[in-house]
Amino acid sequence: MGNNPSALSTCLADVCAGRAGCSASPSTPLYQLTWVKPFNLDVPVEPAAVIRPRNSAEVAGAVKCAVKHGVRVQAKSGGHSYANYGLGGEDGSLVVDLVNLDSFSMDQKTWQATVGAGTRLGKLDEKLHGAGKRAVAHGVCPGVGIGGHATIGGLGPSSRMWGTCLDHVVEVEVVTATGEVVRANENKNADLFWALRGAGASFGIITEFVLRTHPEPGSVVQHTFSFSLGSAKEMAPIYEAWQALIADPDLDRRFATEFVVQPLGAIITTTFFGTEAEWDATGIADRIPNGGDVKFVVNDWLASLIQEAGNEALYLGDIPTPFYSKALALAPDDLLGSQSIASLFDYIDGADKGTLLWFVIFDASGGAVNDVPLAATAYPHRDKLLFYQSYAVGLGALADETTAFLEGVHAEIEAGAPGANSTYAGYVDPAIGREEAEWAYWEGQVPLLREVKREWDPKGVFWNPGGVRVV
């Protein structure tokens, strides 16, 4: 699609009705710093313009401006895309920044919350707590926006117990590619509703979510097990024991855990949604590899979220940096065998990392996530048990050695799990080619997603390099 930047800016100014701080273009002073705000500094992007609408009507007006002037559109909620896809992923898109759409209300009869799509997860937790001590499943980074999170999956510690964040979405208000504002749920615009829950960025701009909620857990038991070993090779049996634990099909769904390899050793984090007595009764503690330093705390719900956010900040938080990341989703049959585990950790031992800031993270999934039928939403990973992610942060520009290190880690895991060929859309990877990206993120859901795309966005108004294509 072509574009006319000057005409687009004039059109957006009309949508803003002269309101200051509403829209900007590359000629605006400090455009990148104060308007674009890229998350991954290793992926430079210059949008044609950025608009910060106050309501769905202004979102619709912005979409109409983009269509009129031949510009692609992407919404930005929290802006945490690993490849800056919320900024279009490449130069020349219109960014609809939803920062002002942060309304909230709670229906005290149904306990359904209505939430603006620009709401950050940390603020959502505070609002849900204040509206009757309610909660939903979501990830651990408080700065992530629900607009993106609840349209790709939304995985977090409570997902094994409650499902993904998108499994809590019962209705949305969405702006379509024609600039129309519609409602979508299981009964109305059901095909669009299906696609939005898993591949939302390719189908519209959600301005409002209606979410089912849960009562907050009364107590949350959290542990951190730290292993400081002389070499990564010594971590292999610890990882193998942890993997055997999370592979148990009868593992208590109130339990969440991750295994993190880092320069100083390994960390196992565990979260149990229940009392200390209930935790002890599960017997899980006896199955966690021992020998490390242990930190233990019993929290309430909000304090547990703060604890999880603190753990996340150790790896990749809200601060823009140049970084590289790889990821893969593993079903039970894809779990690494002993030889593959040993090979992986041998590689980590010997490889040149090119940075002191690198992490390889394994997150347990399954449980309630897997209960939802595959056909119910566009989210494709209902059979997955484990997600692996690797990150490396550059101290300045990323070194070639750093990228090569993560590619090597990825190759080791692929070799040990040859049946694993997909990844979570929340861990977007610009290294995946455009022809392969759809299949990597949405697996067998792609044919139906393309049908819905042809119906609702045949001209490809909503676009990023890894999105659903018009075919």
From TrEMBL:
InterPro entries: BBE, FAD-bd_PCMH, FAD-bd_PCMH-like_sf, FAD-bd_PCMH_sub2, FAD-linked_Oxidoreductase, Oxid_FAD_bind_N, Oxy_OxRdtase_FAD_BS. Residues 43-216 form the FAD-binding PCMH-type domain. Keywords: FAD, Flavoprotein, Oxidoreductase. GO terms for molecular function: FAD binding; oxidoreductase activity. Belongs to the oxygen-dependent FAD-linked oxidoreductase family. This is Related to reticuline oxidase (Berberine bridge enzyme).
